[in-house]
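ok, trying the design again with the full structure, not the truncated one.
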């Protein structure tokens, strides 16, 4: 079994590649829930939905999030009534949030609800939240602390990034499926998807026991760089790194994973960084990492699995 840690568009695309080359039962995709929030009275889980929609083949491939062919008539009507429309919820997408919210209010766990939604959408691989308890990413900026979605969507990452904290993490637990995967003696490898280390992967590490489990694991782990040629493939990562005084390079991303993974995949554009990354104690594999086609997603997934399963 392979355990993938995923968040954001890059995580969803990598999850799709892994799901194509691994059979159901061979893959558990644990998804960041630090981005989750309450909006318009609904429980929104953006990263879980991105992964689920992508695996179901229903995602908007242009935006990278939401459902293909969705409309915004509800939001247009809400705007006429003076409601908040800064977070773009599609009409079809609303059905997911309505069902999730109703099931959570009825006492179901986020893990249960996610499994139900995946089954309804025909997703056969295990997609699980990192935790069933609320963990909320709070972004420290030069304008004060902001809720993640305020920073990311409402403010479009404009404030200067200074750090993050994860509210509720110490009182939360890894979800049952994530905890079981981490302690499974048959675990064949861990893949850290090309997700933002600060916003998508550190929420996992903030959960009690997860970072120590990753550092003490017997299975090999491999991470994929979300930086290609000094630029983030998607999202604000390069901007954030610059504001932290860090070079926006695959090498600097690799530094964030020292002790957590054994191998690091970089794009061919960053192959010259291999010696410096190897000096950190990581094996390096250079290959095309832009997942612009299903074939590229599958090739990257196969390479990551091979590195994770290497003796």
């Amino acid at each position: 079994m392979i355990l993938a840690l995923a968040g954001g568009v890059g995580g969803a695309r990598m999850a799709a590649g892994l799901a194509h080359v691994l059979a159901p039962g061979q893959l558990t995709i644990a998804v960041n829930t630090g981005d989750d929030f309450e909006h318009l009275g609904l429980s929104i889980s953006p990263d879980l939905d991105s992964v689920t929609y992508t695996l179901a083949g229903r995602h908007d491939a242009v935006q990278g999030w939401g459902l293909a062919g969705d409309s915004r008539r509800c939001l247009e009507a809400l705007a006429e009534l003076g409601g908040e429309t800064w977070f773009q919820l599609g009409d079809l997408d609303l059905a997911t949030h309505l069902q999730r919210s109703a099931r959570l209010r009825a006492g179901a766990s986020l893990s249960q609800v996610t499994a139900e939604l995946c089954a309804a959408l025909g997703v056969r691989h295990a997609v699980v939240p990192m935790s069933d308890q609320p963990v909320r990413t709070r972004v420290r900026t030069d304008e004060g602390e902001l809720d993640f979605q305020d920073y990311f969507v409402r403010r479009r990452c404009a404030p200067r990034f200074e750090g993050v904290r994860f509210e509720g993490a110490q009182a939360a637990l890894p979800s049952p499926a994530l905890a079981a995967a981490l302690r499974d003696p048959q675990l064949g490898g861990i893949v850290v998807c090309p997700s933002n280390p600060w916003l998508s992967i550190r929420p996992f590490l903030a959960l009690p026991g997860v970072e120590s489990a990753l550092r003490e694991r017997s299975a090999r782990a491999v991470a994929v760089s979300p930086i290609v040629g000094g630029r983030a493939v998607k999202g604000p990562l390069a901007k954030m790194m610059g504001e932290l005084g860090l070079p926006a390079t695959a090498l600097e991303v690799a530094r964030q994973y020292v002790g957590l993974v054994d191998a690091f995949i970089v794009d061919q554009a960053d192959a010259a960084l291999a010696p410096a990354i190897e000096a950190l104690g990581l094996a390096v594999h250079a290959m095309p990492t832009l997942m612009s086609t299903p074939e590229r997603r599958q090739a990257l997934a196969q390479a990551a699995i091979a590195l994770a399963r290497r003796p």
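Keeping the full-length input from now on. The chain has one domain: 2-137+168-232+251-309.
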